[in-house]
Amino acid sequence: MSEPTPYEKLGVNDEASFEEVRDARDRLLREYEGDESQQEAIELAYDAILMARLRARKEGKIAVPDRIRYPERLSTAIPATLQNNTQRRTPTWLSKLLDSPSQKDIYISLGIFAGLGTISFLVPAATTTWLSFGLIASVYLLTRKENRFGRALLISLSGITVGVGLAALTNQVVLSRLAGAPSFPSPLQTAIVLIVMWLHACFLR
Prior knowledge:
The protein is mostly helical and 205 residues long.
């Protein structure tokens, strides 16, 4: 069996943008946190891709943005005080909780929850079933990020709890004032729960 290419090691194709390559590297480094051999292999694959693109740039095959050719210029161009202020603005606990998903991951998770929302409008009688599928999808998406099932389950339960709370608030404040208001949960309220669950699954880790 042939040795995987640097692109295959990072899980991207050879036409991936610099941002996609960088995001793949960052995601894998988080996933293999504590595994020095895996992290070293990830960094080597990332460096190999950059070197290959630099060679292609010198040969006139591709145009490489300045931020790839001269990454040190970015750090020196930003005043040290501004860098320190930016770091202080984001607490450590918050930076560890928030995620910066790739566009592909956003579209995948959005497609799953949008599909469940659409089905819940078409078959409103099975609301509990669609919310259960949403919980399962949330746990799967969060576990895939860092392979920590317990944390993924906790965040997913938090998402559905917050979503149900907002949906119940909507029922009391808005829908209860309308004549013939639907019983809780209505398709709209189910959609609110699914949106909150999607936000948790996509932008937390």
